[in-house]
Design brief:
The complex is a heterodimer of chains A (467) and B (334).
Chain A: E1 2-6, E2 16-23, E3 26-34, H1 40-43, H2 52-57, H3 64-79, H4 85-111, H5 136-164, H6 184-215, E4 229-231, E5 234-236, E6 244-246, E7 249-252, E8 255-257, E9 264-267, E10 302-305, H7 314-321, H8 330-354, E11 371-379, E12 382-391, E13 394-401, H9 403-407, H10 419-424, H11 436-443
Antiparallel strand pairs in A: 1-2, 2-3, 4-7, 5-6, 7-8, 9-10, 11-12, 12-13
Helix pairs in contact in A: 3-4, 4-5, 4-6, 4-8, 5-6, 6-8
Chain B: E1 11-16, H1 22-27, H2 35-42, E2 44-48, H3 56-69, E3 74-79, E4 82-83, E5 92-96, E6 99-102, H4 103-112, E7 116-120, H5 122-126, E8 139-140, E9 151-153, H6 160-173, H7 185-188, H8 192-195, H9 199-203, H10 231-234, H11 278-295, H12 302-306, H13 309-317, H14 323-333
Parallel strand pairs in B: 1-2, 1-3, 3-7, 7-9
Antiparallel strand pairs in B: 4-8, 5-6
The chains are: A alpha+beta (467), B alpha/beta (334).
């Protein structure tokens, strides 16, 4: 048996680490670690509940608008108010633009780097050189699309800026509604950018994943796991939020069920938290760091639904919606992300037509003295939940379960692996000096350690790590 | 001038510590020049914690090589605050020789051999939001753990041009003119309040009562009077389209040394300061209210602050950017 440790795992949003055990060229064990801690849930205590939207956006630079949305939904839930109709559309547009930004950057700057032969210059060198299968013409066209993707994803962030003041960390999503009046000049600028982006998605991004699929069809076999998935729903259809464009659902062994939040518990047996931190439902969750804890290997807690590790993300959303049910594997995850990007971009064009240029955008409200609220949404990487309790007008308790906590979680109290750990088991490593397969499987989840991880290849030849 | 390995472009390391990657993501929004131009014709981005093709030991080896073989030849950019709790184990860069290499160790080692050290974003520059009370990971700024000068480029996140501009200044002209907080005066020389397009509404007391209104945001929490940054004139992002006040929301002071403890609640206004001839003294008002906000002093003390004596004492006592000392001082006052 050999151990391969990869840390840092680059091209994941922030640092994370992975240790896999290889036997006869196959992965027989895997441990995923989040290797930094910031403590948002502790920092939020005592703060004005209205500040949570802007503060929690700082959890993640690539999906900030979704934290702003979850925090806003939670406070609106606690205050018993609804945003104006126009504001719901504006918030959906900001979130949509941020999702386009994330998916385009992920596909071209994070994921494709594992499959393409890139220009011989930093930061593309050094890098793995094996198993680059695309013929030169297709490879070079995709590299050109990567440079184009830099421009296109910037445009997506400019759209966030138009309606949110800046990006990341837009100010335009807050409890009560939105802040930028959708006047004709703003809508015109937004629509023009959206059309450019949608052309790129249809003409480059989606065709590129099918070119990739053609060359790497064996990745339908890598990274497989059981049909266990979770989503809370994404994009409220109206301000009343009774239905969402991408519906919620829990998929347990292939069966789609209604989400029951009481079945969620966060385990911490193998996480660097004191025993009192888990297992708990987030409504009563605790966050007590204990870095010295024995047997722990991650800063990420292990959320479980009815005791099961569920994955989230574009594949889960399309599966629950009924738009894609081919399989649960690395290539399925890659393709689902591109397809979701196309769907979101198309939906956004229709939302622009629903805006009322002079319509109301903000509902004033009183922050309740004592109340509880839950804010749920889909984010780029999966289900995102904020659980809020207010006492004396201040935040008394705030718990957040991020998508990467679901996807990249360590083992739980029953010693069951997290979803990425499961997906790594059984994959073949052709060359232990260039274990490129590991990163490909993990990055298909679009792992984010700000939201939760790292992969570790030690500097030493793998042979020295034999156990 | 050629580097030791024969390459000729300036070398850059972009390291991530306790961060959310927001500064790198913002930097990718740079336009003219953008990221592609930076890596293809301006510099060699030898290490980028987010975008490097290499991972694991290959990535760590790149850092080791720069530190050992390119002394005083590279620019070290650090994004994120530096946790000191448990000997730095609250932020690990990666694994070196089988051991966790903490952010604390990494910035000290890489910082010692760098030509310039740049703090990208408010976390690296001043501690930022992760150093907010109760500071669970005992985070500090980059400067607090280095013995050498750090050039601070704050903002949460950085505006892409603040960072691209600083890097290009270093490459073409050397160190830019810095203020007392080691921020380039080029970008942080004026308060947001003094540059604001809505300044006239402030002077004429026309205030927004809630977010979404097109008036002055002061009464709903704008920290523009105490925040030094050129957001109103530069705007965000690469295309200069908007900024928080243009989006009808208050500036939350994200580029300030006091962010975020000194900026919250975001939607509560700074203590009212009424002075005759406010137009000429607004800058001074800004400085004074900044001290007031940072300390969280009640409005009853403002009178004595404005007499000047108390403010001068405070300013003398307070090392710039030192949140810990600000808090200790606050405790003493209460």
């Amino acid at each position: 048996m050999k151990k391969i440790v990869i840390g840092p795992l680059t091209r994941a949003n922030n640092s994370c680490a992975v240790e896999v055990t290889v036997e006869d060229k196959k992965v027989v064990d895997a441990r995923c670690s989040g290797i930094f801690f910031r403590g948002f849930e502790l920092i939020l205590q005592g703060k004005d509940p209205r500040d949570a939207a802007y503060l929690t956006e700082r959890i993640c630079g690539i999906c900030s608008s979704l934290h702003g949305a979850a925090a806003s939904y939670a406070l609106e839930d606690a205050a018993g108010i609804r945003p104006p109709r126009n504001a719901n559309i504006l918030r959906n547009l900001i979130i949509g633009a941020d999702i386009l930004q994330n998916h385009i950057r992920h596909q071209y700057l994070f994921s494709l780097v594992d499959y393409l032969t890139l220009p011989e210059r930093a930061p593309f060198v050094p890098g793995y050189t094996k198993d680059k299968r695309l013929e030169k013409k297709k490879n070079d066209a995709m590299v050109q699309n990567m440079y184009l993707a830099l421009e296109i994803s910037r445009l997506a962030h400019e759209m966030v800026t138009l309606l949110g003041g800046k990006a990341p960390f837009p100010h335009g999503i807050l409890a009560g509604g939105a802040t930028v009046v959708p006047s004709a000049d703003v809508v015109m600028n937004f629509r023009s950018k959206l059309q450019k982006i949608n052309r790129f998605i249809r003409n480059q991004m989606v065709p590129d994943v099918y070119i990739l699929e053609d060359a790497y069809s064996d990745y339908y076999e890598l990274g497989q796991r059981a049909q266990n998935m979770l989503e809370y729903g994404l994009f409220p259809r109206t301000e009343q939020d009774r239905e969402r464009y991408f519906p919620s659902g829990a998929v347990l062994n292939g069966q789609i069920q209604k989400v029951d939040l009481s079945l969620i518990k966060e385990h911490t047996a193998r996480s660097w938290y004191a025993a009192e931190s888990g297992p708990r439902n987030p409504s009563g969750g605790r966050t007590v760091p204990e870095r010295e804890k024995e047997d722990a290997y991650s800063w990420i807690k292990a959320p479980r639904y009815s005791g099961m590790p569920l994955e989230g993300g574009p594949l889960a959303r399309l599966w629950i919606k009924g738009d894609y049910r081919k399989g649960i594997s690395t290539m399925d995850r890659v393709i689902a992300r591109a397809l979701e990007t196309e769907k979101v971009g198309t939906l956004m064009e229709s939302w622009l037509d629903e805006l009322e240029p002079e319509g109301c955008i903000f509902s004033p409200f009183e922050v309740p003295k004592n109340a509880e609220g839950i804010g749920l949404t889909g984010a780029m990487r999966g289900p995102l939940g904020h659980w809020l309790r207010i006492e004396n007008g201040r935040i008394a308790q705030y718990q957040i379960i991020t998508p990467s906590a679901w996807n990249f979680s360590p083992r739980d109290d029953q010693n069951c692996k997290g979803p990425v750990e499961e997906a790594l088991i059984g994959i073949s490593i052709a060359d232990e000096k260039q274990p490129i397969e590991i990163g490909r499987v993990i990055r298909a989840f679009d792992i984010c350690s700000s939201c939760s991880t790292h992969l570790i290849t030690t500097g030493k030849p793998v042979g020295e790590l034999m156990i | 001038m050629a580097n030791m390995d024969g390459s000729t472009k300036p070398l850059i390391i972009w390291l991530g510590t306790n961060t959310c990657a927001g500064d790198m993501l913002s930097f990718l929004n740079a336009k003219d020049p953008g990221y592609e131009e930076l890596i293809s014709s301006i510099a060699e981005l030898r290490f980028d914690y987010l975008l490097s093709a290499s991972e694991g030991s290959d990535a760590i080896n790149v850092l080791d090589d720069l530190q050992k073989n390119h002394k005083a030849a590279y620019i070290l950019v650090v994004e994120g605050s530096i946790p000191t709790r448990s000997n730095g184990l609250y932020s690990v860069i990666g694994y070196r020789n089988g051991k966790a290499w903490t952010a604390l160790q990494a910035v000290r080692e890489l910082g010692a051999a760098a030509r310039y050290v740049v703090a990208a974003g408010t976390c690296a520059a001043f501690g930022g939001i992760y150093a907010a009370a109760p500071n669970p990971s005992e985070c500090v700024s980059l400067q607090a753990v280095l013995d050498r000068k750090v050039i601070n480029v704050p903002g949460c996140p950085i505006n892409p041009e603040w960072m691209m501009g600083t890097l290009n200044h270093l490459i073409q002209y050397g160190e830019p003119a810095l203020d007392d907080d080691n921020r380039p005066k080029l970008f942080y020389g004026e308060t947001i309040h003094n540059l604001c397009q809505r300044r006239d509404y402030f002077d004429n007391s026309i205030f927004a009562a809630k977010p979404g209104e097109p008036w002055c945001m002061y009464k709903i929490g704008c920290k523009g009077p105490v925040t030094y940054a050129d957001c109103p004139v530069r705007q965000w992002n690469g295309e200069h389209l908007s900024w928080p006040v243009k989006a009808n929301t208050p500036c939350i002071g994200c580029a300030s040394p006091e962010f975020s403890d000194g900026s919250v609640p975001f939607f509560e206004h700074l203590p009212d300061v009424k002075l005759p001839g406010i137009k000429v003294t607004a800058n001074r008002v800004g400085q004074l209210t900044g001290v007031v906000t940072a300390l969280g002093i009640g409005a009853h003390l403002i009178g004595s602050i404005l007499t000047g004596r108390f403010a001068e004492t405070l300013k003398k006592d307070l090392p710039r950017g030192s949140k810990l000392k600000l808090r200790q001082r606050l405790k003493k006052i209460h």
